[in-house]
């Protein structure tokens, strides 16, 4: 197998998702060094009767009809394959049908030889045609709503035993993979585009920022509300729940609060500017089985911008330097944010920036290339 063997990344997200996560970042950075094919999500979550899901299904059907020349031709971007499968993976009959669809519509689009780097436990046999197999788990997705949990865990047991390398994004995910039979798991906690977030010159004002999806099953809205109730100005950046017709009352009240400035979903360059204009970054996660496996992508984005961090208790952050994080439950979260603003010093912000620099996508890409070279 050549040291330049192509890589197939099987994702759990579409390439043009509103917010990029580690799947798209890894794919585009590896594409600077190797041929990369990005296979978009198999749609593991069972669709619901919403406008958002209907639109997503329609887009996928249209994308599947495009020829390769109609797809992105940006330099160093991967070839993108949009698979068409039936999104009811809990059914044995449907899984058999999906395997046939993948063999017919996806496999012919892949290189003749490849290394499979899968973020999805359900692979529909793509590892069978691969020279090597990396399983990279970044979430406890079987705990997410509307997921075929039993099918996912069964597939994951098979994946961790077949994979040549198993990677986890948090201690919670690593523990889960070891419990289901992985012989060894590498811990790669999420990193950030630290150069981008450290670039803007600070023009700080005494306010807090939250960046991310306002997902009711993941985000502690009461904790965010306590921030504005503590008379702290709050900036919120990120997409709303996907079905905008049913915005929960507590989220609507938060966004309409006079101390809240909602900026919507911002491109990374603009988000970095917003961070440079704030003092505190917020991680207001709920405590539940899903978040026990979450290492927030925003940790090193906040630190690269020099922000103090106030977070609810997350097991994945237990090993993080206590000097970098202020932990608080919903009760007292707003007061902790207010105190962090009062105690903020730019000299300490510079120390946080320096620490974040080693948790960059450049260093992670080097790690990934080393894995690929070892497999070759």
Automatic annotation (TrEMBL):
Molecular function (Gene Ontology), one example: glycosyltransferase activity
Residue ranges the record marks as coiled coil: none
Keywords: Glycosyltransferase, Transferase
Domain of life: Bacteria
A Pfam family recorded for this sequence: Glyco_trans_1_4
EC number of the protein: 2.4.-.-
Family: Belongs to the glycosyltransferase group 1 family. Glycosyltransferase 4 subfamily.
Protein name, UniProt field: Glycosyltransferase
């Amino acid at each position: 197998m050549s040291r330049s063997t192509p890589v197939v990344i099987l994702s759990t997200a579409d390439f043009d998702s509103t917010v990029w996560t580690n799947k798209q970042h890894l794919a585009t950075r590896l594409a600077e060094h190797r041929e990369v094919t990005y296979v978009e999500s198999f749609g593991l979550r069972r669709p619901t009767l919403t406008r958002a899901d209907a639109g997503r299904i329609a887009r996928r059907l249209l994308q599947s009809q495009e020829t390769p020349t109609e797809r992105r031709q940006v330099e160093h971007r991967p070839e993108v394959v949009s698979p068409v499968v039936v999104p009811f993976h809990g059914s044995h009959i449907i899984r058999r049908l999906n395997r046939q669809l993948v063999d017919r519509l996806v496999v012919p689009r892949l290189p003749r030889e490849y290394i499979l780097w899968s973020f999805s436990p359900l692979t529909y046999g793509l590892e069978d045609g691969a020279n090597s197999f990396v399983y990279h788990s970044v979430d406890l997705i079987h705990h997410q709503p509307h997921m075929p949990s039993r099918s996912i865990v069964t597939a994951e047991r098979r994946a961790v035993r077949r994979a040549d390398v198993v990677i986890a994004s948090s201690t919670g995910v690593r523990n889960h993979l070891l419990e289901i039979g992985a012989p060894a798991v590498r811990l790669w906690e999420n990193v950030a585009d630290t150069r981008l977030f450290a670039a803007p010159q600070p023009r700080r004002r005494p306010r807090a920022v939250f960046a991310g999806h306002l997902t009711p099953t993941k985000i502690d809205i009461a904790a965010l509300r306590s921030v504005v109730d503590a008379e702290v100005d709050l900036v919120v950046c990120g997409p709303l729940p996907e079905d905008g017709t049913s915005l929960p009352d507590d989220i609507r009240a938060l966004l309409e609060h006079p101390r809240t400035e909602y900026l919507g979903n911002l491109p990374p360059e603009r988000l970095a500017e917003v961070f440079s204009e704030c003092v505190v970054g917020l991680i207001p996660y709920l405590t539940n089985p899903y978040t026990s496996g979450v290492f927030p992508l925003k940790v090193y984005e906040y630190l690269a911008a020099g922000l103090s961090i106030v977070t609810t208790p997350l097991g994945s952050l237990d090993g993080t330097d206590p000097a970098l994080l202020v932990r608080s439950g919903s009760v007292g979260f707003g007061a902790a944010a207010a105190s962090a603003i009062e105690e903020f010093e730019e000299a300490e912000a510079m120390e946080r920036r320096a620490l974040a620099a080693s948790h960059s996508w450049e260093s992670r890409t080097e790690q990934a290339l080393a894995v690929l070279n070892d497999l070759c």
